[in-house]
Amino acid sequence: MYSSKTRRKVAPATANGGESADKLDQLLLSSAICNGEDLGPFVRKGFASGKPETLLHHLRQFSRAKESEIEEVCRAHYQDFILAVDDLRSLLSDVDLLKSALSDSNSKLQSVAGPLLASLDSYVEAQNISKNVDLALKSIVFCVKLMELCSRANYHLSNNNFYMALKCTDSIENELLDKTPSSTLKRMLEKKIPAVRSHIERKVNKEFGDWLVEIRVVSRNLGQLAIGQASSARQREEDLRIKQRQAEEQSRLSLRDCVYALHEDDDEDGLDGVESDSNGGTGLLGFDLTPLYRAYHIHQTLGVEDRFKQYYFENRKLQLTSDFQVSSMTPFLESHQTFFAQIAGFFIVEDRILRTGGGLISKIEVENLWEAAVSKMCSVLEDQFSRMQTANHLLLIKDYVSLLGVTLRRYGYPVDALLDVLSKHRDKYHELLLSDCRKQISEALAADKFEQMLMKKEYEYSMNVLSFQIQTSDIVPAFPYVAPFSSTVPDCCRIVRSFIEDSVSYMSHGGQLDFYDVVKKYLDRLLGEVLDEALLKLISTSVHGVSPAMQVAANMAVLERACDFFFRHAAQLSGIPLRMAERNRRQFPLNKARDAAEDMLSGLLKTKVDGFMTLIENVNWMADEPLQNGNEYVNEVIIYLETLVSTAQQILPAQVLRRVLQDVLAHISEMIVGALFGDSVKRFNINAIMGVDIDVRLLESFADNLAPLFTDGESNQLKTALAESRQLINLLLSNHPENFLNPVIRERSFNILDYRKVVTISEKLRDPSDRLFGTFGSRGSKANPKKKSLDALIKRLKDVN
Questions:
Q1: Of 149, 189, 278, 300, which alpha carbon lies 20 to 30 A from 313's?
Q2: In this structure, are residues 208 and 319 in contact, taking their beta carbons and an 8 Å threshold?
């Protein structure tokens, strides 16, 4: 569908063949105008042809044609227009009638509604007054509520109940302030609410600052209490172990099976006394976290929680840094407990805050603080340990540090780095301990008077004998009791036992469970290097007589038993079975000192015996008849030895006495053989040899008389000390000396003799018939077969030589 406004194109009429060109131009122009086309071409054509008048004429004709069309249209619609005007006039008359009717109705309505409008105005005025009164009442009620909240906030402020005061101010600000009808009151509240919050924040920060000051003192006391309780728990464990060892020892020594049980008291308080308040404090030390949590809660309410967290962490970090300071004016030995207790209390408090603080401090922050504390404590320990030259001081600090580790490990803090520092200085501690023991042992040995120890009371016997298990019998002796050892023995035992206990004390509670090998290594050094060398020095410089030498030898025998106790004691304290300790036992660590003591005693006895053996020069080597009771020298020697044995058996163990006597008898035997072999004896006869035989028999009888003191084997060993002299005498008294040449007989009966000595001594032997002029009286008589055998022996031995 086309729009009604669209012009309809008029097609030019086709001219008849007879029409003129002007008529055609007029039609084309009319068509172009009707179609709304551009008339420019027609104008240009008209002017170009020089006939613009023709164009103008055509235009005028078109205009007249259109005017005529308009007139026709107007004439066609004129009647309708006249009818419309008539209708409009009739409508105007109706409107006038309606207007007059409306005016009459309006006047009537106004006259009737006047009183009603007056009543309505009164009603509206009254309603407005009522609304104003209601609004005033609501405003008054609102202001009363607001003032009540303000009064309540003031009351809470006066009672330092800051949280409730803040809740009141928040209610005022969030619920009432924007609705406050009074602009004055609103301005006052807008000014006072921030002031109230600032006042609360200042008050809370002041309380928090006071708490920071107080918590340092509380932390130190708390750390000391916690470490003290750890020490008490450790002591209870030690007491329990001591009871267990005593029970095991009684069971081991008892002849019958012993059934025993150890009951540990139910004491599980541990550190529970330190932590008893669900709010983060204890009544025991006044350890109260309420001011901290209150400040944290208030800052949460104020909306500055993160700022307070940072403020708290920085202040606590500064306090910890301050706790790290070690005073150079006070020895560390005196201040170390306060130093470590302060740090322990700090982290006990932080652990409580971490668990109950509601996110006030994070686990990462606590771990960072702990790492810094461990690093500082390790550096302090390294520095202080490097300066210390006293083992006891180092041990005291180590014990306290280990208790600190036990205490803080309960709260989940890793303490391996601290224990590593203690282990690192293990060797230095033991070197200092060995040095201290060397001084103590030197002083104890220097004070020894080489006298048997007198004990008047049973407690002295228990303290000096039973406590080191050096008794030879389980029967308690009568008092006063004279011990076979001098006072040096229990003094040295106490020093060694103290060394073991100190060594175990350092090694225990240090993170290493199996430390017996370490303790044993240093115990071997103490016995083998310190005590053994000190005893050797004592023997070589201070022992100048038989009595002191005998006392030292007796002491060595007792120390040998004590060494067994030392290793058992070390094993028990280290918590390993005794069978394992016995399995790893080495030989007696004081071998050198024991051998030196016995050699010194033997040497002194030999020197004494040498004095009596000089009487061998008085022997008549060409006696006419043998002596019946032995020579003078042997009688003197036996008297001395019997006197010696009667004294020595009171203090010397049988094995030591046997070894010493065996050495002395062997020396006597050598002296007898040496006298026969030496240049001082030119010749001797058979009667002299028979006298020496009696001497040897007397010595053998002396050895036999000592049999009750020794076992059969030891008694036989004692007699073998005289074997050389006995074999030589038997050979010289034999009717067939040439049997010495028989290897079987020589191995059985003369295995100790030296054939060179046999040749020399045999040449000195002369028969009584060989005396001066003896050959004249015996001329023609039969030759002595023993002499012939002896001559053959001498000749054969010389040939061999």
A1: 278
A2: no
Residue of 508, 477, 512, 509 lying closest to 403 (CA atoms): 509
Q: What is this structure's pTM?
A: 0.67
Nearest in space to 644 (alpha carbons), one of 692, 609, 670, 669: 609
| Closest among 575, 233, 208 to 406, alpha carbons compared | 233
Helix axes 654-677, 546-574, angle to 10 degrees: 140
**Which residue in 761, 701, 702 sits closest to 727, CA to CA?**
761
- Smallest CA-to-CA distance from 602 within 652, 549, 559 is with 549
The region, left, alpha or beta by phi > 0 then psi within -120 to 50, assigned to residue 225 is alpha
> Residues near 342 by Cβ (< 8 Å), separated by ≥ 6?
216, 219, 220, 223, 323
119-132 tens-digit pLDDT:
888 899 999 998 88
- Tokens representing 719 are 């007699």
Q: What is the pLDDT of residues 375-391, one digit of tens each?
A: 999 999 888 888 888 88
Contact 407/271 with Cβ under 8 angstroms? yes
Q: What are phi and psi of 454, to 5 degrees?
A: -100, 125
* d(C-alpha 374, C-alpha 378), whole Å: 6
- How far is residue 500's CA from residue 466's CA, in Å, rounded to a whole number? 18
Q: Crossing angle for the helix pair 183-253 and 290-302, nearest 10 degrees?
A: 140
CA gyration radius, the chain: 67
Q: How many CB atoms lie within 10 A of CB 556?
A: 26
Q: Are strands 454-455 and 481-482 parallel, antiparallel or unpaired?
A: antiparallel
